[in-house]
Amino acid sequence: MKIVQKLLAFVGLLSLSALFIYALQDAPTDENFERKLINDYNVYALQVPDNLNFSGEMMPLKNPDVLERMDRELLVNTYWQSNGLLMFKRAKKYFPIIEPILKKHGIPDDFKYLAVIESGLTNAVSPAGARGFWQIMKATGRENGLEVNDNVDERYHLEKATEVACKYLLKSKKRLGSWTLAAAAYNAGNAGISRRLKEQNVSDYYDLLLVEETGRYIFRIVALKEILSNPDKYGFNFRDKDLYKSVPTYKVEVDTAVTNFSKFAQQFDINYKILKLHNPWLRESHLNNKSKKMYTIDIPEKGYYDVQ
Q1: How distant, in Å, are the alpha carbons of 33, 125, 164, 303 from that of 105?
Q2: Which Pfam families match (predicted)?
Q3: Which of these, 294, 302, 244, lies nearest to 274 by C-alpha position?
Q4: What is the rounded CA–CA span in Å between residue 293 and residue 296?
């Protein structure tokens, strides 16, 4: 009997210990954010909102083909959670740079999501040779006033590249008649979209039969717009402090050659890596500048990096 009582007491003690440990694990910390969520994870069929649009142009979601294609992109991008969280984090840092430039040119704000699907808001490099957030080809960059060579490549300059993207989109809108077709033309080219419209005798993007990449293009943009605009609705949990912040900078003008950017950076209490992080358009460790062109280099304000 005593042995049984001791066993029961021991079991009871273990149970209390387990409850105590569970209570500690379940205790709210930092507004419940760090609570374990693994047991709450479920996969749901998503309801496609019936009022989705791109730049104010409504998607014809009563068309079953359009509805299924939109459903696909919502599902793929909602449940690609790691990528989704990265997009939230990067958008906080880079959208404030992109948005005023779009507004200045009269480009709908929705086009910032085009940059999201083009590059994931990184200085990506495509197999075809496109570069930067807006994936600009070398010829397009040069035609629109960007310097593109081995020493300086302004396709990596976010502000200047956004300006070029705006010029291209305005020309596309004028030629094709809608923002939706202008966005599709950013992927397939103005001539390519014009040719397909004529060949298939239609006037709307959603009536076109296109290669898969261009056929998914607008749907992917709208999916990212919907998700990034409604994080709670699609199950993304984060705090403002989890998002990436921009580092304040000031500008230094340079109208001569720079023979050594490592030494140049040290003048401003930063290193070469940090200089390149803020000026990715500087492609080499020196600046040729034989033409004595005036360049503007971004230097981070003091106190944001620990440099030894």
Answers
A1: 40, 26, 11, 35
A2: SLT
A3: 302
A4: 10
What backbone phi and psi angles, to 5 degrees, belong to 46?
A: -100, 145
pTM: 0.86
- Taking all residues of the chain, what is their mean pLDDT, rounded to a whole number? 90
Identify the residue whose tokens are 């009582």: 5
pLDDT in tens, 46-59: 999 999 999 999 99
CA distance 141 to 184: 19
- Residues in the chain, total: 308
Q: Kindly tell me if the per-residue pLDDT of 224 is higher than 60.
A: yes
Any residues with CB less than 8 A from the CB of 33 and at least 6 apart, and which? Answer: 237, 239
The structure tokens listed for 159 are 């502000």
**Residue type for 4, please?**
V
pLDDT band of 308, cuts 50, 70, 90? low
Q: Which long-range contacts (CB under 8 A, 24 or more apart) does 114-120 make?
A: 114/165, 114/183, 114/186, 114/221, 115/162, 115/165, 116/87, 116/91, 116/221, 116/224, 116/228, 117/217, 117/220, 117/221, 117/224, 118/186, 120/83, 120/86, 120/87, 120/90
Residue in the block written with tokens 């066993």: 7
The amino acid at residue 90 is R
Between the alpha carbon of residue 20 and those of residues 14, 24, 30, the distances in Å are 10, 6, 20
Please identify which residue in the block is written with the tokens 């994936």.
135
Assign 170 to helix, strand or coil: helix
Q: How far is CA 138 from CA 2, 16, 43, 143, 162, in A?
A: 86, 68, 43, 9, 15
State the CB neighbour count (10 A cutoff) for residue 134: 27
Taking a C-beta distance cutoff of 8 angstroms, is the pair 188, 159 a contact? Answer: no
List the structure tokens of 51. 């009022």
- Give the distance from CA 262 to its chain's centroid: 30
Question: How far, in Å, CA of 157 to CA of 304, rounded?
Answer: 21
Under a CB-based contact definition with an 8 Å cutoff, are residues 115 and 134 in contact?
A: yes
Q: E strand or H helix at 68, and its extent?
A: helix 64-78
